[in-house]
Design a protein that fits this description.
This protein is α/β, with parallel strands linked by helices. The chain has 14 helices and 30 strands. Strands 1, 2, 3, 4, 5, 16, 17 and 18 form an 8-stranded mixed beta sheet that branches. α11 packs across α12. The radius of gyration is 26 Å and the shape is globular.
């Protein structure tokens, strides 16, 4: 076979693309290089035509090339987040050095659009995406709770057709859910026979099959069924060293990779760790809406002891030689695209990986595990997705936060980062005219026979999981003589199975349109009167950027009682961008009845 040189390949690329498609060559000179696997104390790297032309360049700078000094800096491959749910903020990952995302469930249309842009060489302003598309789950199972209808799998005999349909849609790999839920949040799950059938179906088509799990038992079962990788670990406060080592040996024997996803496990444990330090130049790159998920968590209270298990298991996996990948599960509370990768790297080091191993887990290892082609390495002919940082992340992993420059397909993204900083700065300019003017007494419940109204916003209406595909129902009725002479509303709710997080109740929309944000920062608390059947209910609140409502429980006893809840008790909620306030029954199934009156938003 005739040998084709890298230079010849680059020449052919130039002939095949418009002259303006590539910027001038760039030479990063005399820089410490982590090439995805090994460290090179001092090298120069030449970038031409969107790829790495020479990973160990030793000549003079080419004519017209931009020369970037590498003194005191480290050049890394662009980071690869091996577990995200990419459904919004597509511009963010690249700003933080994440040049590729491996997506575990997103809309098919979004997946296809980005795939087309990548194929056309027109995806330079955002991270590349390799996606599972629609996950493989049971009816009523994990993944069905997000309000968009998706196909589900019922039995092993249907697995091949189901997997083939995903591949036809463009799925790069197949993701399968083995998850029964926890506590009150039980959900349907595929049985093991169907999980194995889906794995086998993917393998017959040459596709990877990865499995979502949340318990050790399901993790072992997925590996025994032939999973290529586990996309989570699991929280818990204790696991024996022998048990962790046995699980690691099983993963190694099955040649499977594991993505611990510490960032979301910390959220599940109620532990909120800032993704970057206050001195990092990355700290000012998120606008208010983008910051919101980082202020919330799945866990209602901090339980750091629950992180003992994933730390112990990760250490055992690494010691056993199992491939560990860095993934954040961005798109969930406690995470944000791009920036959370820097926390994930630190968490892997805290769990026992060396900084070098953690960096490999975010570069060359996911590129190899997910078969992503020539990326994740600094080597001749590889994509010029690169990250230049001040300092040495191979001795101090936090140095990844000191980003000097990022390249995507050989082009600097400094202009994109400057534009984001400018937008964030403009947002900080006060706009008091946008604040909702609340009535003097703060009362937002103006209930009459004609309308469940309010002096501000859209007003009140029924709220239940039927709008998300569930089967709960609710009936509202006027109470002419409620608390202190004010009309109230009675809520008769039936919380039924069919949605993983069922609810039914009444909601207030403060915006001019349903779910439009309203600035309620003139208020500091919500006060209301309630009575009912003695059961436990939830005050819920949502704001822009929040995907899971913040909740505070209350009990509706036989007599009217006043309840006061400060906004500060609603973690992750931005009072300047509230989209909904709800009073709901659930998630416990059954019938409920309570009455609500005299709802006020007050300054004190």
């Amino acid at each position: 076979m005739k040998t084709i040189t890298v230079k010849a390949i680059l020449s052919m690329c130039v002939l095949a693309c418009p002259a303006a498609a590539f910027a001038a060559a760039t030479l990063v000179q005399d820089v410490r290089v982590f090439d995805g696997k090994q460290v090179h104390p001092k090298r120069s790297v030449l970038i031409e035509n969107g790829v790495i032309a020479n990973a160990d360049y030793r000549g003079a700078a080419p004519a017209g090339a931009r020369v970037v000094s590498g003194a005191g800096r480290t050049l890394l491959p662009g980071l690869i987040d091996a577990h995200v749910h990419a459904y919004r903020h597509f511009e963010l990952p690249l700003l933080f050095g994440v040049t590729t995302q491996v997506d575990m469930f997103t809309g098919v249309q979004a997946m296809q659009q980005i795939t087309r842009a990548m194929a056309a060489g027109e995806n330079r302003d955002q991270a590349d995406l390799f996606s599972a598309g629609t996950l493989v789950t049971a009816a009523g199972g994990h993944g069905t709770q997000f309000g968009m209808p998706i196909p589900t799998l019922a039995k092993p005999a249907e697995a091949q057709a189901f997997v083939d349909a995903r591949i036809a849609e463009g799925s790069h790999f197949i993701k399968i859910v083995l998850e029964e839920g926890h506590g009150e949040h039980k959900m349907q799950s595929l049985d093991l026979a169907t999980v194995k059938a889906a794995i086998d179906a993917a393998h017959r088509r040459g596709k990877l099959a990865v499995v979502h799990i949340s318990t050790l038992a399901n993790a072992r079962a997925a590996l025994d069924a032939g999973a290529d990788g586990l996309v989570h670990l699991f929280i818990g406060d204790r696991i024996g060293q022998q048990e962790a080592a046995a699980f690691a040996r099983l993963a190694r024997a099955k040649d499977a990779f594991v993505i611990p996803t510490f960032t979301v496990l910390e959220s599940s444990a109620g532990v909120r760790v800032p993704p970057v330090g206050a001195d990092s130049p990355l700290a000012g790159l998120l606008d208010k809406e983008q910051q919101v998920p980082l202020t919330s968590s799945y866990g209602p209270k901090p339980m750091p002891e629950k992180l003992a298990v994933p730390k112990t298991v990760t250490a055992a996996l690494h010691k056993a030689g199992v491939v560990v990948l860095a993934g954040t599960d961005a798109g969930n509370p406690g995470t944000q695209y791009g920036i959370s990768m820097h926390r994930e790297l630190a968490a892997l080091v805290e769990a026992g990986l060396s900084p070098q191993a953690a960096l490999a887990a975010a570069t060359s290892a996911p590129a190899a595990a997910f078969r992503l082609g020539k990326r994740g390495r600094i080597a001749n002919g590889y994509k010029a997705d690169l990250l230049l940082v001040n300092g040495n992340p191979l001795t101090d992993i936090s140095a990844t936060q000191q980003i000097e420059e990022i390249w995507k397909d050989g082009e600097s993204v400094s202009a994109l980062r400057a534009k984001q900083r400018q937008r964030v700065a403009q947002e900080l300019v006060p706009s008091p005219e946008n604040r909702v003017r609340l009535p003097g007494d703060g009362r937002i419940s103006l209930f009459t026979a004609e309308k469940f109204g309010s002096p501000v916003g859209t007003g009140w209406g029924p709220s239940h999981d039927g709008m998300m595909g569930g089967s709960s129902t609710v009936k509202l009725a006027l109470l002419p003589a409620a608390a202190e002479g004010q009309a109230g509303v009675s809520i008769d709710a039936t919380v039924a199975p069919g949605f993983p997080y069922p609810w039914a109740g009444v909601a207030f929309m403060p915006g001019a349109r349903p779910m439009q944000a309203a600035d309620l920062s003139g208020a500091k608390l919500i006060r209301f009167r309630v009575r009912g059947d003695g059961q436990r209910y939830q005050l819920m609140m949502m704001s822009t950027g929040v995907t899971i409502p913040a909740t505070v429980p209350f009990t509706a006893g036989a007599d009217w009682a006043e309840v006061t809840v400060p906004f500060s008790a609603m973690p992750g909620i931005d009072p300047a961008a509230v989209t909904m306030i709800g009073f709901n029954a659930g998630p416990k199934l059954g019938g409920y009845r309570f009455e609500l009156a005299d709802v006020r938003l007050l300054e004190r």
